Amino acid sequence: MSYELLVGLNVIDDRRYQEYRTAMKPILSQFGGRFGYDFKVSEVLQSEVENKDINRVFTISFPKQTDMEAFFSDAEYLNVKTRYFESSVKSTTIISSYEK
């Protein structure tokens, strides 16, 4: 069993976002995390939130929810997030979280 998030992003700088992904993947692996699916989307037809500006959708999974929480609060990850993610992503929507 694992814990997974389905996430929608509004990526505004593809190159910078790819730098973020490259820099964070080794940290993600340290916490047992991985990406499952990853899509670029061109149009959102329906949304349960006001933000309909989603152009990237992916799943990210961890062995346990506590591993996910530890990853997202890790100092090294937060440094990478500040350096790359914040300037490349306008908004984040957590579509769903679940045990798989």
Automatic annotation (TrEMBL):
Pfam families: DUF1330
Gene3D superfamilies reported for this sequence: 3.30.70.100
Source organism, top-level taxon: Bacteria
Transmembrane segments: none
Sequence ranges assigned to domain DUF1330 in this UniProt record: 8-95
Protein name per its UniProtKB record: DUF1330 domain-containing protein
